[in-house]
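> tool_call: predict_assembly(chains=six)
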Amino acid sequence: MMMRLSPPASGRFFQATSFDAHFGGGEANVSVSLAHLGISSAHVTRFPDNELGYAAGAFLKKHGVDTRFVQYGGPRLGLYFFENGSAMRPGKVVYDRAGSAFDCLNPDDFNWEKILEGVRWFHWTGITPAISAAAAEACRQALSAANKLGIYVSADVNFRKNLWRYGASASEVMEPLVAQCDLIVCGPPEATECLNITPPVNDAHPFIFMAEQLMKKFPKLKKIIATRRDSVSANHNRLTGLHYDESGYMESATIEITPIVDRIGGGDAFMAGYIYAMLKNMPIRQALEFATAASALKHTFPGDVNLATAEEIEALMNGNNTGRLIR
Amino acid sequence: MMMRLSPPASGRFFQATSFDAHFGGGEANVSVSLAHLGISSAHVTRFPDNELGYAAGAFLKKHGVDTRFVQYGGPRLGLYFFENGSAMRPGKVVYDRAGSAFDCLNPDDFNWEKILEGVRWFHWTGITPAISAAAAEACRQALSAANKLGIYVSADVNFRKNLWRYGASASEVMEPLVAQCDLIVCGPPEATECLNITPPVNDAHPFIFMAEQLMKKFPKLKKIIATRRDSVSANHNRLTGLHYDESGYMESATIEITPIVDRIGGGDAFMAGYIYAMLKNMPIRQALEFATAASALKHTFPGDVNLATAEEIEALMNGNNTGRLIR
Amino acid sequence: MMMRLSPPASGRFFQATSFDAHFGGGEANVSVSLAHLGISSAHVTRFPDNELGYAAGAFLKKHGVDTRFVQYGGPRLGLYFFENGSAMRPGKVVYDRAGSAFDCLNPDDFNWEKILEGVRWFHWTGITPAISAAAAEACRQALSAANKLGIYVSADVNFRKNLWRYGASASEVMEPLVAQCDLIVCGPPEATECLNITPPVNDAHPFIFMAEQLMKKFPKLKKIIATRRDSVSANHNRLTGLHYDESGYMESATIEITPIVDRIGGGDAFMAGYIYAMLKNMPIRQALEFATAASALKHTFPGDVNLATAEEIEALMNGNNTGRLIR
Amino acid sequence: MMMRLSPPASGRFFQATSFDAHFGGGEANVSVSLAHLGISSAHVTRFPDNELGYAAGAFLKKHGVDTRFVQYGGPRLGLYFFENGSAMRPGKVVYDRAGSAFDCLNPDDFNWEKILEGVRWFHWTGITPAISAAAAEACRQALSAANKLGIYVSADVNFRKNLWRYGASASEVMEPLVAQCDLIVCGPPEATECLNITPPVNDAHPFIFMAEQLMKKFPKLKKIIATRRDSVSANHNRLTGLHYDESGYMESATIEITPIVDRIGGGDAFMAGYIYAMLKNMPIRQALEFATAASALKHTFPGDVNLATAEEIEALMNGNNTGRLIR
Amino acid sequence: MMMRLSPPASGRFFQATSFDAHFGGGEANVSVSLAHLGISSAHVTRFPDNELGYAAGAFLKKHGVDTRFVQYGGPRLGLYFFENGSAMRPGKVVYDRAGSAFDCLNPDDFNWEKILEGVRWFHWTGITPAISAAAAEACRQALSAANKLGIYVSADVNFRKNLWRYGASASEVMEPLVAQCDLIVCGPPEATECLNITPPVNDAHPFIFMAEQLMKKFPKLKKIIATRRDSVSANHNRLTGLHYDESGYMESATIEITPIVDRIGGGDAFMAGYIYAMLKNMPIRQALEFATAASALKHTFPGDVNLATAEEIEALMNGNNTGRLIR
Amino acid sequence: MMMRLSPPASGRFFQATSFDAHFGGGEANVSVSLAHLGISSAHVTRFPDNELGYAAGAFLKKHGVDTRFVQYGGPRLGLYFFENGSAMRPGKVVYDRAGSAFDCLNPDDFNWEKILEGVRWFHWTGITPAISAAAAEACRQALSAANKLGIYVSADVNFRKNLWRYGASASEVMEPLVAQCDLIVCGPPEATECLNITPPVNDAHPFIFMAEQLMKKFPKLKKIIATRRDSVSANHNRLTGLHYDESGYMESATIEITPIVDRIGGGDAFMAGYIYAMLKNMPIRQALEFATAASALKHTFPGDVNLATAEEIEALMNGNNTGRLIR
């Protein structure tokens, strides 16, 4: 989890005399979203043992996430600077996360068997093993413990090209990790970069091609899900949930999102929505619509995390998309 | 009139560290809008005799409303908390108005014959008699005085299901009050809840059906008007004015409103626009277009009240809807 | 250059308890935009010798504009108050620039041959000679020096009807000045007001008619450019670049701009984009697309000046208009 | 009355990206303060017929001042820019009031006999006749009418050296005006500049010397009052009320003011306090203490006007100066 | 716990266009402060089952307080409006807490033996039984359970005259409750109002007199503590801790607090500091100094709760009171 | 130069939802201050080649500093988080500067002989060589070039214990660098840590002892200056300038600073004031008073840099310390 610093409203970095602060990160966003959905969730990470680290921990607590396993120590809190886009102007992220407390974690400090005791689901993202050899090792140990304990494992493959700087290639690290997962969020670009699977150019359904190949390559894998984002402008996207499992391919209804308040964390909200739906034993079609609606609603909240309740997501999933005032 | 407290911009209540404050309320919004249109108007109410009550009174004064008949006393100022919606996410209102100074008014404190001396028009809304038996009684006395003095009376029927808690049913109170009106703002849902008139399911024109029945039921009634709000999203609505009188049914042109800055008070701006138009003797068609344009412009101002001038409303009514900069 | 004072967000002047401050002005906006494009540029003007004047100078410095030739003296800084429009509600400008330090400049204080030494391009706008006889005289002397030194001269004809109060008519002043230009930004309304050229009513292509006449009337003139702004609402415009030279008429692709963050300075960004393109020897078609894209991007930045880099403008010009986040 | 624009908190003009807006002016501040004390008061002035002028009028209305006699017309609203001081750093005012609607008023537009009908007290300040010959003339006519109607007249002599630019000297204008007053606020510097009375160097009590001379020179004059401000720092002043009348000289208790929230308008609050005390027939000693306490409390409110109630001022006057929380 | 709404900085209610929001309340402030001191603490209360209630709960979670026993239900969240004082101007509180969810709690909903299982200390304040008969009953049951379980009990006697409206007198309710306490925070005014003990007029040490009497009257009582606040101004107080037990009377060193950032919650911080000190087995003298330093530090944080760490409080207690920057 | 991020007003890191941004750093603050004093100054550093780096450069430009020699490249912009102190609560700095673009500079990228061409004065601080071996080497080369060119060299010895992590000890690096200086800012703690000179315990005048030893140890050194800061609270300091040269020891008048707006950069403002005074050939006594007044005024501006003009500093130096409003 990082602190995000953004110039207010539509201002540029060049103009900023103050920055709005939010906290967020792939796995943390999923935990927070689940907590708002009423699912008990914990986040495992490492924050620096300073005031910024405590503020990060307090953010998780405020949102109802269990922080019992958060460690405090190490050099600094990862940051990212985010400039909002507008109309045809893209938003911009300047990452400033190198050398964070999380980068420098010691894998031996996490006793995964204890952490995962009584847990039903474990989720990780491809950002963690990309950060440092130590983080990748911690991820490896966590997956190993999760598999041993029979916990359902999901991953968001999430390739970031400006990470992966510690020497290992994305695919050599990610493939064995993905091999231990039950469900992944993955689109063709991530599959290419991290999992050595590339749909042929001009394939009519690259997601389906990819998903079929992934299922073959990783026998434990049961589901591959993703969102397709059609970008009309920085303020207007269309979102569709994609779903592949043994029963084949399925797409959700497409949701129009305009205006977008904050698009960061949309994928994490999708993942959290899907986890919630599975834990509630929703049928697949409904689970996919729920996850997609969750992701769409995330775009209407400032910050990285989804604050929507299950009731709000269900209302949208059931077609209540006109935004009429609730008195 | 209440104080409205809103998290800034698109934030949730959960995230708020400050609240933007506005003042508003059905009848007050009409008074303020008329004052901005250059019509001399007074608001009669009761505020608590404390700093928040004085601020409420000062708000009316600032906007040019005559506050001579405002009483100060009683327990508290009514509040409501309003969270802006965004895209498909609905805005939310959390009312906190129970036990207000207005609820606890003493009907005998208002000498309506004196208050209404020299007045041309009296307007009230269905929120007032819904609040408490005392408020309903004050309303009854006001209407009686207005009728005695031959003053034109309008009402916005305005049903709020979370009010009406003092024992009386909406219809038993509202029917005799509406019977004393010349004009009402009313749509089928309000007619059902408050006036015991329900268009048959699948009626092609429920508004027309309702209006015909209302005219029959309430012989004094000369006009029934309303707006139809087609909600594309929380930020994008389409607004049409509806009008029924002895000459039959009429609709205004539909106005596209996107983005909406603040949709609260749209109905009150419509009413104020129509009152203005009648006081200026506009032909019916023009009056309806003026009222609809007034309501549409309201959506572009932060706060509950319409700040548009007659000149601005006329420009929009005459088709100048492109928002081109005026230098 | 003036200071702009705006109520925050969508508020009215009537509601403002604070004003956001920006600096801007026709010529200054062009200088700043060129500086952000990496072109060395200087701005010549006069600010009052007080803290507001120094702040204005510092604004130019911050944006990389050479302020060596700025003079400090005279009564006051020109201001304008700007209320943002929303949806169908127009934005409003209240100018408060009379009696500024710039109005009262002494033409003899500017040694144009020295100022223009080594310069490749000189740009002025029709606002300068409209302000005062002294400003018009300074403009005349500058053009004379520029012509003597063989510098390329452009002008934005820019008619403001609430200026031109010092006795001279717009056309008697502007015609001899435009006669010394190589390129002008001018549309039919400006040509009518300032240059005595009016396309016939119902002419199918008034811009082309006007341009042909201008080329005849002003033999030095080589290019006439302009933007066509199609206004859907205060928040949604469509922008097209228009171009006329000896090779005839050309239009750029039309760019959809929604939502508009700030439309002030769009024309100046267009001019700066075109200057940049010519200095970089872009072919005409590309230059026009670049200038139009520059202008469109300006609409996404708060303030009067264009903060876009050449790389960002090129991306848009090359069709990258979906506003997808750049990580 | 002008609009005041200030950088937030302790920032410099050089740093400002927004300005806090307040309204204020010598006479207006007195009217507003009286309205908060429950005294019916009206302000007579001229604002421009634009949105800024209406906002100025609305400010007066909000504070309960009668604006019936405010005229709308003329070029611009007077402004002043105010940078807060801090510790040993002085606050700074940059006036920008030349050419205001008030400067350019037409004295014939004010029918003083009608305006002053039924009025008990008329107050003016030395700023008005300093602004323009027209404003001085309006002042002259107002005083003449007030004297004719037997209204008590007070003036704050208030010398501003950067005004008085229309050709007349301060003393030639002010002397005949002061001759028509019953009470003035005046200290030795103003007496020197405007009334040709200068205490000898090293006089032990220059205020007493001055007051004696003024009483001799202006036979109508009954009282001379002033405040002595002992400045420890920009945030810490000590305030003492001075009083001279036929019964001789009197000083109020000294009030310690730290921290100062906003020192602008302290003199006007003193004047308003004294007017209130006289209208309430307080004994002189009490009146002086009340006026001084009123002035001191003004320093604790942001903006130019005193928002204190009579009850609050009396509490302070009675020694309740510890600022203990009132629950 | 209530939500506090304050005009920003030194503004009056009359001027507010927004309110800063904080959460706080006697018992809640103690819990939060203890959590920041590293002591595990829980808060037992009732919030409404709406977004404001959830925000209140999230506030406690963020600060590390256990919210397991918070109930959600009932009408509204208690509010209070707080205007900051400045210099000699007092701050003002406008309470708006009548009819809150807490007022309307059902005492049977709290299973105190379960809630208090494993607990070492129970703290309550005199505000709770003052609010409603139901709240008083809940308090009674809690104390009974606490006594049964042998838990140390403290109370802040805390008299608020605008509460106690449900028919019972303060003393008839408070005396039996205080009889079950081991330690109370109480000064002479509270003893008079709630416990029928009034020091003789002109008693040299009214606190000592009161404490002696209290010890006699309530045999279970072992300690009476309080703070003495010497108010120089709203921004400058001097704070001294008072302590009485079997070994007699003791005073802490006096701490100068200037400027005060926020004085609300100073007493609660004192109580929390004393609880911490006792749980850490500090000697009495040290415990009193620690509690007083904790209270003093509270005055430097915006909001109702003390954010100081034990390390910071100890530094101050050890004389490090110069506020030197820590790099 | 770093970006500083601070919670607004007196808030804690724990409470921050936004951060105010400023730029500052030892040497940069001196350059900016000199530019505001009218002295032409340049800053040599390295910023990252991203939007934050450009914003840092623009900050220097805005303040009139020559940025010709700033390099753009490398990983990140150094940051520091600063929490304001209040009363007895200390301010806190959390540095986050490791791995900055400046740390990773390449000494060979700076051609010092060219950079220093025509320069009269070169200033550096002990922070630079503390950051990295590369920065220390750049410093060494700069000093060598400055000495070769006969440029006056000053240094602020400025020991920061959380730097110096690259293996070298402070004294082994600093001693040879200080040996090349003409003037240093240094107090006993820095002399102990960096220059191996420690006044005996209980020495009556440790600064004098230290200065004498330094003069002996470093023959080139002509002046040792420093400020003594007596801290009453985080908001109230007393500042005295100390001065030692061949003529012996001298102290400035002590300046009371309350309230402090922002104490960061006080030492840099002192240095800049002294450089200005020497370049203007002020006598030593006056130079010291000027430098001390400059430093005191810095405390009244938000941000790291001194915005005072020479005129303002002189006014204070001449005893005008009452902060009286300048109209």
